[in-house]
Structures are given as C-alpha cells and as structure tokens.
Amino acid sequence: MEVFQLSPEIPFRFNPIRLKFSNRSRINFCRPLSATSDSRSGTPDSESRKNRMFILGMGFVGGFFAEKLKEADWVVSGTCRSDSKKKEWEKKGIDLHLFSADSPEWSLLESVKDYTHLLVSIPPLADIGDPMLRNVELVRDKLSSGNLQWLCYLSSTSVYGDYGGAWVSEDHPPNPKTQTAKLRLAAEGGWLSLGLDLGVSTQVLRLGGIYGPGRSAIDTLLKREHLSESQLRRASRRFTSRVHVEDICQALQASIEKSSSREIYNIVDDDPAPREEVFQYALELVEKRWKRKIETKPFLYESREESSLRGEKRVSNQHMKNKLGVKLLYPSYKSGLQSIVEKMDNPF
C-alpha cells in the first residue's frame, strides 16, 4: 500500500489525514501548519485554518476530487452551471456558485481569492477560448491580493495532435489539429503565465480519456447508449490513452505536495489500448459477472481501414511517475474495469 509522503517545501501541511480512495490505496490530505488571515476580516477563524480548494467547473473529475477533499476536512467550493446541480452538491455539504462560461460573473473572483488552492476544469469555448482568461488582468489583480498558493489547469493529451502512433512525452512539441485542442493549448499557456506572475505553484495536467464509476465502457454497454460522433471516431483508433478518475486524484494530490513552477504532466495509464479492445473486454466482464448476454454494438468491431491517423499517439506517463511519485491504482483498463464491475449492483 503506497502512501505519499509530504514534501518538506510545503508550508501548509500538518497532521496528515488518511483518506480512503479505494480498497487498494490511501492518500494523505493535510491540514495547514498555522492559521492564515481571512482576507475579508483580517483575523483567523476555524475555516481559515484549513486548506481551501476552489474548483472552477465541478464536473466528473472536479466532483470526485471535491468529495475526497471534503472527507479530509478541506473547505471546498466551486462552480456549476445549473440550479439542480447546485442543489445536489448542497445536500453533500458543498456550496457552489452558478457560473456561465458564456457570460462570466466576475464578482466570483471575490470568493475565489480567499482560497489557498484553485483547480481549473472548465473547457475552452469555441471562438472564445478559456472564459476566465478573457479578462486575465482582472483575474491577476484579484488573485494577487488573496491567499492562493497552488494553481492547476486540467488540459488534454489532444494537444499533441498526430504522432503516427509513436510514444510522446512532455518534451514533444504539441501540434493540435482540432480547434478545441488548439484552444486547450492556448489556455495552458495562459494559466501557466498567470501562475508565474502570481508566484504560486502551478501545474498543467494533460489528461487522457477519463473513466470511472458511472462513466466507463461497462456503463455505456449497460445503458445501450448511442456513441457521439467523436466517440465513433475514437472507436477505430489503434491507440487511445486513458486514465481512471482515482488516478487523476492521486496525481492532483501529489502535485499539491510537490511544489513546482510551470510543470506539465501527462496523466494516463500504462496501456494505450484501442477502444474496440476495451469494449470487448467490458462485454466479457458483464456477461461473466451476471451470466447474461447483451447485444453487441457495431462499433465494437468497426473496421480500422476507415480510420485516419489523425490523433494517433501513445502517451508516456514516466514524468508523472518520476517527478510526482504516482503509483497507478489502475495501470491498465483491465484492472480499472474489473474494479468498476465488482462494485456494481445487478443491472438486469
């Protein structure tokens, strides 16, 4: 069982709390050494003594990480796009701010600046780019007068573009092909520059295809869902890098503990397998677990002859392992899918 040890450079650690991510691993989340002043009152209180995480974009990854932090006694807040989602999180003890990427409410920055940690998980918008960086001078001004110590932007391995199936690392130059990937790369540069200006620990995590409980090949098969156009395109690729949400959380925690400036990490597992192979294995797991045959989908056997090499690459995770010390809970889609199916109730 691997437990991350805290880096001596981090001044806000104190009495590490063990937090269960799964039956296979525990990760230390930490309390601050001493009270920091509440920027609104100038005096410390019970809340300002804690690490405080603000998550811009409480989606699948942000929500998963938020719950773990909350269990570890962090103060957690963030943004969502709908009242229904806001109410769901309120029931879990986490208050969120409504946020529209199309027309951001800049008064939100008055709340963000009181947090010690900021995780950015909002995708760029077509023709706009990163919604927060549209007014980067205001963001810089507000955050520079706050308590921020750590900043992380969640990006995508799509920024590498096509390498013809070769292995790529953080040292390979990005060559994005799609407009979304180009906007991702621009956002990376914007947040890294902002972090440098603010003088805080700043990282970019380039995530592979994200999966986990409720969002996996197994769930797609059981729900008989139709795949999106982008999913159908990925179905016939030779290589698709992916990562379990619990391993993303491991990388996030490690990046908090290891202070760095302008670091970029690929967050993927060890097995960039084709989507067809992953769905076939998911089908076998479902039929073995519940002794039921389910309808196979045409995309499981889609011909690769019609697939272009656009976006073909195998993404290396060695920098993540060497620098952050992450030991993957799920090094392959096989172990990840097995853990998901073992915890599921009978869907039939």
TrEMBL record:
Keywords: Isomerase, NAD
Record's protein name: NAD-dependent epimerase/dehydratase domain-containing protein
SUPFAM superfamilies: NAD(P)-binding Rossmann-fold domains
Pfam families: Epimerase
Domain NAD-dependent epimerase/dehydratase: residue ranges: 55-267
Family classification: Belongs to the NAD(P)-dependent epimerase/dehydratase family.
Any one GO MF annotation of this record: isomerase activity
Keyword Isomerase in annotation: yes
Superkingdom of origin organism: Eukaryota
